[in-house]
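TA notes, week 10

Several of you asked for a full example with nothing omitted. So below is the full record: structure tokens for the whole chain, then the designed sequence directly under it. When grading your own attempts, check the secondary structure regions first.
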């Protein structure tokens, strides 16, 4: 998922998407442990997507804190 697409999501949608991606990552890890998966790059891409989602969530939280402090 591209960062530009993440910016268009609402905060609630980002939180929901984080849960979904974490679940998917867990499933991929179990599948990879049992037998080889088609594309091991999926693990890396899923981790990066989760990081992008957390980054946008943090940016929004800090912007909200700064708006409340002023």
């Amino acid at each position: 998922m591209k960062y530009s697409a993440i910016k268009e999501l609402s905060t609630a949608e980002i939180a929901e998407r984080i849960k979904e991606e974490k679940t998917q990552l867990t499933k991929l890890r179990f599948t990879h442990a049992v037998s080889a998966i088609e594309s091991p790059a999926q693990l890396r891409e899923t981790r990066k997507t989760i990081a992008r989602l957390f980054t946008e969530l943090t940016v929004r939280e800090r912007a909200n804190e700064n708006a409340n402090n002023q």
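The mean pLDDT is 93. Use that as a sanity check on your answer.
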